[in-house]
Amino acid sequence: MKGDAQPLIKFFDGSDKRFIIPLYQRNYDWKEENCEQLFQDLLKMHHSDRKSHFFGSIVSNIQSGTEDRFIIDGQQRITTVSLMLIAMVNAYKAGDIQATDSKLVDKIFLKVGSLGEEIDLIAAIRKEKIDTAVMFSESPETLLLAYFSKIKNRVGFKTASLNFLLTQTVEKQGVPSLNNNIVLAKSVGIDNVQKDYLNVLQVDRESDVKVSFWLEDNKMLNEDFYVVSFGASKRRQEKCLRKEVWIETLNKLAQMKKKVVVVYAQWEKESAMKIMKYVSKDVKMFCPENGLVELSALISKAKMFIGIDSGTMHLAASLGVKCIALYGNTDPSQIGPRPLQNHIIIKKNSAKNIIANDILENIK
Question: Which partner for 264 in 95, 258, 268, 321 could form a disulfide, CB atoms 3.0-4.6 Å apart?
Fold first, then answer.
């Protein structure tokens, strides 16, 4: 007999694993008070931030060549936990509870490139026999994928170019936004939609450690610092401020003895350097080698984010970092950082009309 300690979820894990209760074992006889005691123990563990709870011993015998486990002792607890997990799944599906783990999904289908891969993807989705598809994207590719995957109910926005492929359509107000997505979700009875994106992303430990070393090397670890992002995608250059505004803003922040990190993607380096060559050397530059996970680790440690309407700005808001969000002709009431009241919004008719003092007067 071999005994070892392992997380209960690991003990349960495995799609082919079966727990077999021999006939000689007694029937399940836990009463409500027994179940309540287990539940209260789990609650105490959660509220005290303990990482684990001793569930008790389970004696089992693994059937050779299979994943079957004959339960010799512990069947009462295994049965109770199984029932509790089923109840949690049902409550989640009914919208009575919400998941806080952004990774909690049943299955992820990866977007593919070639025609052959597309056909394989359609075949894989067909096997799932999905009843309803809610399409937040209006792209022809998304609608065609749902149609050819034989999904019975296809729900999306009326403004989609191929909306005749949809079985149910919903009006969209303005540009794609979280508010529109909430309306679309509610049209199919999904009411427990989070109205912001706080805590959706989690910073992984490896990136956190790497960024901490970078901050230590630049004498910013455990210090207040500001993250600035002035870039936009090549198709969204109208969102950008004038270069001289960023030069003045960054230099004045340096004069105020504020610690500042300018973040940029590799493809933005050339345009970023056209600004940074006129900026104080006290302002640091950071290009995340591992993309969004590393960028998230840096932004999560910042006192404040300063930037234009962009994915990076929404990333900062999702991490709970206060933003000075700079808007030109786009509408922050529709696509502003969420929740909107937690952030400082600077809105002009054109991003080119925003000046350095608009930003600086919001920094203490």
Answer: 268
Cβ–Cβ contacts within 10 Å for residue 231, how many? 23
> Cβ distance 202 to 102 under 8 Å?
yes
In whole angstroms, how far apart are CA 185 and each of 192, 200, 270, 355? 9, 18, 41, 39
Same domain, 160 and 261: no
What is the pLDDT at residue 234?
67
Write down which residue in 94, 126, 158 finishes a domain: 94
Evaluate whether 166 touches 154 at the Cβ level (below 8 Å). Answer: yes
pTM of the model: 0.64
Residue 49 lies in domain: 8-94
92-97: average pLDDT: 71
- Whether 110 is in a domain gets the answer no
Does 130 lie in the same domain as 89?
no
- Give the sign of the dihedral formed by CA 319, CA 197, CA 90, CA 148: negative
Residue type present at position 94: A
DSSP per residue, 103-147: T--S--PPP--SHHHHHHHHHHHHHHT--EEE-----HHHHHHHH
**Number of Cβ atoms within 10 Å of the Cβ of 61:** 13
